[in-house]
Amino acid sequence: MENLGIDIKIMVAQAINFLLFFFIVKKFIAKPFSSFLEEEHNKEKEKQRLLESAKKIEEDLKVKKESMKKEVQKETKMIMEETKKNALELKESLLEEAKREAEEVKEKMRNQVEEEKQALYKEVKNKAAELSFEIVTRGLKDSLDEETQKRITQKILKNLN
């Protein structure tokens, strides 16, 4: 091999250097680099898993939000309907109360009108009796005796009652 220009000692030294370099690189550079790459790969997988988990949680939250929104709308609608129902019941009871009070006022007014009518009738009757008595007293005073005047006056009063 010397003819070719290859020196065995240098070749062995080169091989030993290469093996030493190989073991040093493997132990101090390749192994830490490999574990670093594996760690980064694991971190990336963990990030992907967390991202997927977060997306799933987000979707679950969207579904819950929608269901809660529908439930709130349903409850709101139910409350509005109940409020309308209560308002209608209150309106009806107020109308009934107003009608009842109006009937009471009408009845009181009828009674009052009737009382006033009776009082007016009595007053007219009394005025007619007084007028009749006055007519009999003044008109027939000279022509009738006292006894006849009393009888006529009593007949007039009986007829008025």
Q: Which descriptors apply to this entry?
A:
2 helices, 161 residues, single chain, mainly alpha
Written description of the protein model:
The protein is mainly alpha-helical. The protein contains two helices and no strands. Helix 1 packs antiparallel against helix 2. The longest helix is centred in the middle third of the chain and has 132 residues, at 8-139. The mean pLDDT is 88.
Short structural description:
With 161 residues, the chain is an all-alpha fold.
Number of strand elements: 0
**What oligomerization state is this entry in?**
single chain
Radius of gyration: 63 Å
- Overall shape: it is rod-shaped
Contiguous low-pLDDT stretches (5 residues minimum) are none
What is the percentage of strand-forming residues? Answer: under 5%
Report the total helices. Answer: 2
Percentage of residues assigned to helices: over 70%
Overall structural domain count: 1
Biggest sheet features: none
Termini separation? 173 Å
Average pLDDT score:
88
Q: What is the chain-wise order of helices and strands?
A: HH
Structural class: mainly alpha
Protein name: ATP synthase subunit b
Family: Belongs to the ATPase B chain family.
Membrane topology: Single-pass membrane protein
Coiled coil: 40-130
Write the layout of secondary structure elements.
Layout: H1 8-139, H2 146-160
Helix pairs in contact: 1-2
